[in-house]
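Subject: Sanity check before I submit

Could someone independently write out the structure tokens for this chain? I want to compare against mine line by line before I put it in a report. The sequence has 370 residues.
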Amino acid sequence: MILVAVMLSSILIAAPGASNNNHVQLTMSLGEEWDSNAARTLNLSSLDKESDLLTRVIGELKWAHIVNPSNSLVGTVLGGAKRFHSQQSEDVIVHNISLGSRHKLSPKWKLGTDVRFRMTRMRSVLRDYSLAQGDLRLDWLGIKSVESGLTVSAKRFMFPTETRLSYYGGSVTLGFSGKLSEHMQWRTTGTYERDEFGGNALTTVFDPNNNQMTVTFCDEEDSRFLQTCMSQPRQDDILVARLGLFYQRFFLLRGNLFFERRRSNSVYEDINRVGLTVSTTLEMFAGIMLNALASIQYTSEQSLSQNLYQFQPEDDENQNRITLQLSREIISQVDLLVRYEYFSNAFATSDTLFTRQTAFVGLRFDTQSS
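---
Independent answer below. Compare away.
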């Protein structure tokens, strides 16, 4: 996938008229990384976790084509891979592809479409998944430079290891954005999403063999209580509210506050989340750039079905995170990168524990043509 991105960028940059209608940007990074929890293990102390070294490579191609002053096409192809030295079962390849269009209908109305596909494949296949999503967005520039937008989305999540966690989803998002001052912007959104899962909802039934209540999916794979349990396909309703601030003058500063409320027809999947993420980018000295991010999140309860299969989705794994990255240009279009990250779910109210640290040293190549 990375080789394809390089070839496509070369063709687009060299294409006739590329400087007039096309903007192409190619970014690649390659380096060595240390991972304190290479297998992303749950419920183990720091002494039980196995660390490892790995090689990380990422390539991303961004492309925009101006059809005319009111219409344009955009696309992104991203490919990444991690190759572990010892924990080879954790080797992973990631592909991200997106295509979209942008249309200016009038001075106040804009329309956008996007189709995205993400695929992750591991050597162990334990956390293989695919996600396809389509978005239709309508924006309106209202009075006093306040922009509002309505987005309708449909998506399909596929998790082959346990099809009970695969689902179809649809969502509606309403957002508003504007300026507080010359250097500060704000944005707020509200989203409602409905997910229809491929398996039954977890339910409680009496187990006469152990003389106690027990949890079951009440399906053919878990057929112990088919005669006594009540089965129903799992459905989740999700509400998400976000508020973001963006400041840019002598440095960049971003802040994002969010709240998520998930309610399912299985009480074992109900989740409340609240979180805050702050990030900054600034130039320090001698051409060194600092990128820093801090994220803290509190989660009440946790998906029991995910715990049963030791599946830790990214919104749980990364819920408490610190990232520090230093970069400096060493030759034209090539930067040296040094990055440290810490991940934890320390504020989750469940017995599932997760901690992980990574340290990365590598190079980043960036080129573009307009």
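---
OP: Matches mine. For the report I'm noting this point. The longest helix spans residues 2-14.
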